[in-house]
Amino acid sequence: MTPIQPPCRAVQGLRSQHTSPRPASRLGLFPQLAAMSSPLQLLAYLAAGLGGGLLALRTGIPAAPLAGALLGAGLLSLSGRLEAASWPAGTRTALEIGIGTVIGTSLTATALSELRQLWKPAIVITLTLVVAGLLVGFCCSRLLGLDPLVALLGAAPGGISGMSLAGDEFGVGAPVAVLHAVRLITVLLVLPVAMRLLLASGITPPPSG
């Protein structure tokens, strides 16, 4: 004998048969918006980066704003109080365009005329640095167990901004920026001392012309 279902369950069964499935949410239709962090989280990261950059700017170290912003935002992310930031689509592209524009404005007619005279040493220096960077990166990866991408991009000749953005394309922007910050700070601290010692020893540059 078939049991009789209560009226309420029978009505719910009929509704479930004839009702259409719910439409996907708006965030489901736009996965980029769903993956993006909330505006308050992004503002918190921006505030941490701004505060770190301004504090580092007072130290006078090279690339202070970038290093300070990296340290401030990185410490906030490592604290675990906020989820990892997921920036809106196009943020990285906008930063790359901005950095490229700033660097491009330094290419003047004077720089071009100097390049006509210095193209030979420019080629030698560039090839030497690229080859040396590849060798150092390979050795660090094999001997020190460093990630190959981090090692190669961290040893490549280039500025902090450009190389960190290049590393961010492969998901290793932060460690690459740290390596280049250490390199740049060390060079700018050691090189002036070395130049003073060379000048004090009587070594003078050859006359121009």
Compute the CA-based radius of gyration. Answer: 28 Å
Number of helices: 10
SS elements, strand count: 0
Q: Quick one: biggest sheet? A: none
Shape: globular
pLDDT under 50 segments (min length 5)? 14-35
- SSE arrangement, N to C: HHHHHHHHHH
User: Which strand-content bin applies to the residues?
Assistant: under 5%
The average pLDDT is 77
The residue fraction in helices comes out at over 70%
End-to-end separation in angstroms reads 113 Å
Secondary-structure-derived class: mainly alpha
Keywords:
single chain, mainly alpha, 209 residues
What does this structure look like?
By secondary structure, this protein is mainly α. Helices cover 71% and strands 0% of the residues. The chain has 10 helices and no strands. The longest helix has 35 residues, at 109-143. The protein is globular.
Draw up the topology in text.
Blueprint: H1 7-18, H2 26-29, H3 31-35, H4 39-57, H5 64-78, H6 91-104, H7 109-143, H8 148-155, H9 160-168, H10 173-200
In short:
By secondary structure, the chain is mainly α. 71% of the residues lie in helices and 0% in strands.
